[in-house]
Amino acid sequence: MAQREGLALYHAYAFATIRQCGANFELAATYLRWLEEHGEAGLTEAAAEFENISSSCKALILKTARAVNSKRAVDFAPMLDAMAASWDTGMAALAARYLH
d(Cα 36, Cα 44) in Å, to the nearest integer? Predict the structure, then answer.
C-alpha cells in the first residue's frame, strides 16, 4: 500500500511503527546498561541484542523508504530474521538471569 501512496504515507507509517519499535529497544538497552552500572550484573548480552534491534530498525526505515520511492519489491526477510534472532537471544539472556 505504501508503495502506491508514496513517501508521505510511508513517513507516517514508519513513525508509527518502525521508529517507535527502534526507540523502544534503544530505551530498553539503555535501561539495562543503567541497571548494570548500578550493580545489576548479567545484562550486557540482552542490552547488546536490543541495541542490534534498534540499529536494524534505523536501517529498515531507510531501506523501506528506498523501496517505496523506487517502487521496487525488496526482500526484508533476512533483516527481519536477524531482528527476530536478536529478540530471541536478548530475551533468553534475560530469562536466564531472572527466571532461574
Answer: 8
